Amino acid sequence: ASFAKYNSYTEFFYVLLEEHDELWDLVKTTPSKYKDKEFFYSEVEHTKDMRSEAIQIGAVALRYLVENCEA
Asked: pLDDT (tens digit, 9 = 90+) per residue, 5-62?
């Protein structure tokens, strides 16, 4: 997928912050809180979700570097 450049540093920051908040929500929530008869959220699923959010943070940061930092 191709995305337009960020419109501002502020937009970049808020996209990064949103991804951070999604990871932070997972960090604060342990899988054991979700063990009941209706829903079971395993540690494996939790770890996969945390990894996915961390990758998204890295992708946002890498995109910023590619778009804004000449080497």
From this structure: 888 999 999 999 999 999 999 988 876 666 665 566 678 888 899 999 999 999 999 9
- Give dist(CA 54, CA 19) in Å, integer: 8
The pTM score is 0.79
Count of Cβ atoms closer than 10 Å to residue 61 Cβ: 13
Residue type, 19: E
| Burial track 3-26 (b if 16+ CB lie within 10 A, e otherwise) | eeebeeeeebeebbeebeeebeeb
